[in-house]
Amino acid sequence: MTQNSLGTILLVCTSHADLGETGNKTGLWMEELTAPYYAFLDAGYGIQIASPAGGTPPIDPGSMNKEMQGPSVARFDADADANAKFGATVPLEDSADMRRFAGIFLAGGHGTMWDFPDNKQLGSLVTEATKAGKAVGAVCHGVAGLLAGDAPVALKGKSVAGFSDEEEAAVGLTDVVPFLLATRLEKEGFKYSKADVFTPHIVTDGLLVTGQNPMSSQATAEAMITAMARK
Known about the structure:
By secondary structure, the chain is an alpha/beta fold. The protein is built from nine helices and nine strands. It has helices at 31-43, 71-77, 80-87, 112-115, 120-131, 151-154, 165-170, 181-187, 217-229; strands spanning 8-12, 46-51, 90-91, 103-106, 135-139, 159-160, 191-192, 202-205, 208-211. Helix 1 (31-43) links the parallel strand 1 (8-12) and strand 2. Helix 1 runs parallel beside helix 9 (217-229). The radius of gyration is 16 Å and the shape is globular.
């Protein structure tokens, strides 16, 4: 299949680098960008990478540990075109028209917990995509983007996955993150479900596709591709 023949996916990642008040760094969980990137690319989609601030997104140092990297991270590291896109992500304010895109996918990483939920531009993109009948995907903490702007209203009652409260406790960040994602999703009217900690879990509800954790990254993107093919 010819690359870009199916349109372009807007792949959004965080611009936030500080892990609360801990003095440690966070950002994007790399596999949650790279696995979807190649799932979409290999399926024939073009990709634009965007972030709230634009430029090079911060990477969570933990996601670059060898034991945390899937094969897509090494592939991305060796891909000059992918690195060029990553080093110059488009600011969300310059990606304002969802008519240009076939769908939107929100990559995770703890940084999203600070800069996704209050980003009205991101909320507008998710809402616009939903109203236009386009696919919306998100994995792990990237699901926090479904809380932005009017997105909770547009998506109210939808079934979702996302990083569980138990997983947050397992990584020792319950008291560091600004809120617990699963708890907040339920409070906002989403139907949240989970699997055991660090077990892949994907939920498809129409054209909304969400995954629970880094282990769900590849399958979440593949499920979104399937949902788009069924349109």
